[in-house]
Amino acid sequence: MVISRENINPERVELLCRALESGEYEKGEHALHVRTPDGKHKWCCLGVAGDVAHRNGLAVTREMFGDIGDFLLESIGGDSTVMSPQVRKWYGFGSCSPRVLIPGRRGDAVKAAHLNDSGYWDGETMRQITLPEIGAAFRRTYLEDHDG
């Protein structure tokens, strides 16, 4: 699969990779960012992307709102499940859930949100993936030279 890097801002994608690999964010699923009833914050890789963009100067709206029980969801740029157009453009991604190369699978790519929420098929079972592993997948896909 060919993934376009034409509009990618490598310095900004590097910031995202470092944030995902840092261990600063606890992984969550199916929402950009939630605060649980016990006060924990959980992040999808795309929520981390929005947080990094905001912390690095992107003027994007952020709003916490109650949506599911006692959980608070965060909307970044008007969306709570995928990258907003502003965040997507800040990085140069062509999609609100950019495709990333699956670890250890030459040429196979999947949408980042799907990889975050569902993991990937390793040939024998569905394998869950960590935010640092997703950071490495973004790095491999958008910053490193590779043949597939």
- Overall SS class: alpha+beta
The main pleated sheet reads as: 4 strands, antiparallel
End-to-end Cα distance: 7 Å
Q: What number of domains?
A: 1
Number of helices: 5
Describe the structure.
The protein has 148 residues and is of the alpha+beta class. The chain has one domain. Helix content is 33%, strand content 20%. It has five helices and eight strands. The protein has helices at residues 10-21, 45-55, 85-91, 112-118, 131-142, and strands at residues 33-35, 41-43, 62-68, 71-76, 99-101, 109-111, 120-121, 126-127. Strands 2-1-4-3 form a four-stranded antiparallel sheet, with helices on one face. Strands 5-6 form a two-stranded antiparallel ribbon. Strands 7-8 form a two-stranded antiparallel ribbon. Helix 1 (10-21) crosses helix 2. The longest helix has 12 residues, at 10-21. The model has no long low-confidence stretch (mean pLDDT 88).
What's the topology here?
Blueprint: H1 10-21, E1 33-35, E2 41-43, H2 45-55, E3 62-68, E4 71-76, H3 85-91, E5 99-101, E6 109-111, H4 112-118, E7 120-121, E8 126-127, H5 131-142
Antiparallel strand pairs: 1-2, 1-4, 3-4, 5-6, 7-8
List the main descriptive attributes of the protein structure presented here:
148 residues, globular, alpha+beta, 20% strand, two-stranded antiparallel ribbon
